[in-house]
Amino acid sequence: MTTTNVAMRDAFGEALLALASDFPKMVVFDADVSASTRTAAFGKQCPNRFFNIGVAEANMVDIAAGMATCGLRPVVSTFALFLTLKGADQLRNVVCYNNLPVILAGNYAGLSDSYDGASHQSIFDIATVRVMPNMTVVVPADGVELSQALTAALRRDGPTYIRICRNPTPVLFAGESPLEIGKIRKLKNGNDLTIAVCGVPTSMAIEAADRLAQRGVSVDLLEVSTIKPIDVEALVVSARKTGKVLTVEEHTVLGGLGGAIAEVLSQRAPARMSMIGIEDKFTESGAYDALLRKYGISVEHIESKAMRLLTPEP
Amino acid sequence: MQARTHCDPQVALQEKDRKKKAAMLQRLAQEFRITVLDILHEKGTGHWGGAASAAELLVALYFDAMNVRSEKPDWPDRDRLVVSKGHASCMLYTVLANRGYFPTEELKTFRQIDSRLQGHPCMLTTPGVEMSTGALGHGASVALGMALAARLLGKSYWTYVLLGDGDLNEGQTWEAIMAAAKFKPERLVALIDYNKVQLDGPSDQIMPMDPLPEKFRAFNWNVAPVVYDGHNVGAVLESFDWIKNQRQWPVAVIYKTHKGRGVSFMEDNAYWHGAPIDDASYAKARKELLQTLEALP
Predict the structure, then answer these.
(1) pTM higher than the cut 0.90
(2) For chain B, which residues make up each domain, given as ranges?
(3) Which of A254, A252, A194, A253 lies closest to A224 in space, CA to CA?
(4) Nearest CA of chain B to the CA of A67: how many Å?
(5) Cα(A6)–Cα(A170) distance, rounded to whole angstroms?
(6) B153 in contact with A, Cβ within 8 Å
(7) Interface residue B183 vs chain A (CB under 8 A)
(8) By the CB < 8 Å criterion, does A81 face chain B?
(9) Is A5-170 a domain of CATH 3.40.50.970?
(10) ipTM for the whole complex
(11) Could A66 and B152 be called an inter-chain contact, meaning their C-beta atoms sit closer than 8 Å?
């Protein structure tokens, strides 16, 4: 593992350029934020295959869907909040209902549009898109996984939502086996507690697991990059082994990774569970790391919640 | 009670003489109205108003303007129609079935369990349906995507979108109208079924859309210089002739239509947007439709 930091959005922009010739039917859409989401470079390289629709997310999603019916492979990029809410009816009634191969690139997701504040912070995009039939939901943990997710999505049928962070985050998986849609990546093998994490907090979970190991706690650490379809078998095996599951995500605790895992385990392998994420509230402006800390997404919080989960119930 | 003469859809499709064809399609549209009325009455569900309003336009598109192959609905070079006013589904299905996409007997399954004919059009289940619609406001954007795809793929198919009053209320429709004028895709045509009645009442009361041609022009569309009579197939075919001669894109044509067309007490009456058709109204309505059909040349 290296300590280099790379922003997923930069990896996204570079991946689009790199994939342009391998996927000649790929077209890219943006809604007047191409400089921010890094799709602008693709637009410069392939102007005929790039469509800036202006600030009209609903329109953008449906234009892309229309193209998809004709055999093209659209990648639709804008801020996650606006893509999933201003484009929600379009995602539901056109893209998902018709199972069209449109890739939804939800940029600036989670708290990563940190200084812009609550109006721009996408804290329930996973919950919003996860309930739509036919949708695949991928939350990469670093730039490497992001570009692998994009490539994998271009090879699949049906819609795929990919969650993208704005800010530089540690590169975790360079040279590792590539992200596989639908498969959990096992990061540590342990017996006392399962920690399931997705996205940016993955590096925090790794550090927390190391600290817990020093306290004699062995963590089964799972990186759940695909929220849907979720890797049921890997979750069940781990939950049966440890009986305790802590979920960690940069998202509200309602309906995201924690919710998805609770849905599975409550039926297949009931376990004591605890969830880390943003409690049911709106967030605020601030530095990204300060925001994550304030809203409970930190190494310390993972460690303390893990210890609490290990304490027998009275 | 059936009409004394029946117009064979295949004969109408093949007819080369424009005047004769217009007369045949006029009859077909009226026959399809009766079919739709029968289905909606029998099933006790569906939308009469918008279906009757679009009869001539849908018939003229599928039996004249559009280059499609009903035996190969996914032929890549086919012309596309997005019926954005998806509540016209029963008329669309009737036209598609008679055009050969699926057996007309299947129309009896409209809106019933396990049917391919969903309440609103579904592209996954019904051969010939290009886009699932029903939620208003999607069609213009989707059609723009299809027309831009033709440009990218080097194809020369036409893309039509049929818009209703409700669609014009939706903000997304105007986003699409704006964007279409930016990209100017060749052979993108918006047909507006402008009956000026929506679910809750006259559009002038619910959400006024006039002056509609001026609005499209202000958005830099090439708008037909006249508003055509959307219930006169001869006029509709004339509008198609005008469309085929255009070189400035995108193109919009506005048709004056009447919601619930063909039944005096249902015409221009918002109640019949989607009300179930009771037995007494059905008998009266069917008689009127049949009388009109018999009187056609």
Answers:
(1) yes
(2) 9-295
(3) A194
(4) 5
(5) 6
(6) yes
(7) yes
(8) no
(9) yes
(10) 0.97
(11) no
